[in-house]
Amino acid sequence: AGTVPEEPRCTVERADASLTYSLFLQRFAFSRPVILGGITDNSAFRALCTREKLLAAFGPFPVRLSTANTYSYRKVDVPFQEYGEPLLKPQDPARLGSDTLYFFGDNNFTEWGPLFQHYVPPPFRIPGTSPAYSFGIAGSGSGVPFHWHGPGFSEVIFGRKRWFLYPPDKTPHFHPNETTLAWLQHTYPTLPPAQRPLECTLRPGEVLYFPDRWWHATLNLDTSVFISTFLG
């Protein structure tokens, strides 16, 4: 219910398991994003991430929700079962980012740590960095508006997730308190072709790599489970 239509066009380069580490460093690590297919097998992790399994294992434990706003840092703590039932629903297009709560990135690793031990991260690293996981579950139409940080990978476990990316020197036009869904409906159609972002839809098992300081926004087309590996 509440799925968002998918745009079939993909302007992000793709690579498969034949991509070597040296080629990754040479072609993508410091210059442009890439979608990697077949580089990990997370079927065991996926089996633990069904709605029933997660509610049974973590229902009473607290999760920290963030607002879907580029510059807001408001956090709300609720038991996971309260998020997994009434709050996990399709995005209201008229709702502001500051009023939209989103489970992504702030987790109690003492309690959720055993789950993450089953995750197989992408095999590539950036020299001088160390990985940190960020786990998320979100309803259709939800997402994070444009922002940037260090490099990282993001893998879809369940659902489909649409990405929009701009290089560091090309700041996107967006309102920081507008959700990605509202931006897609109101701003995206007005952009000339030359001003459109790189974009693509990720499906389960696909991994997106984004370089340092690249602007990006996300939109969950379905109720989705996803995990990022930030390289800090």
TrEMBL record:
PROSITE patterns assigned to the protein according to its UniProt record, in alphabetical order: JMJC (PS51184)
SUPFAM superfamilies linked: Clavaminate synthase-like
Pfam families to which the protein is assigned, alphabetical: Cupin_8 (PF13621)
One GO cellular component term: nucleus
InterPro entries xrefs: Cupin_8, JmjC_dom, JMJD6_ArgDemeth/LysHydrox
Sequence ranges assigned to domain JmjC in this UniProt record: 98-232
UniProt cross-references to Gene3D superfamilies, sorted A to Z: Cupin (2.60.120.650)
Domain of life: Eukaryota
Gene Ontology MF terms: cis-regulatory region sequence-specific DNA binding
Protein name: JMJD8 protein
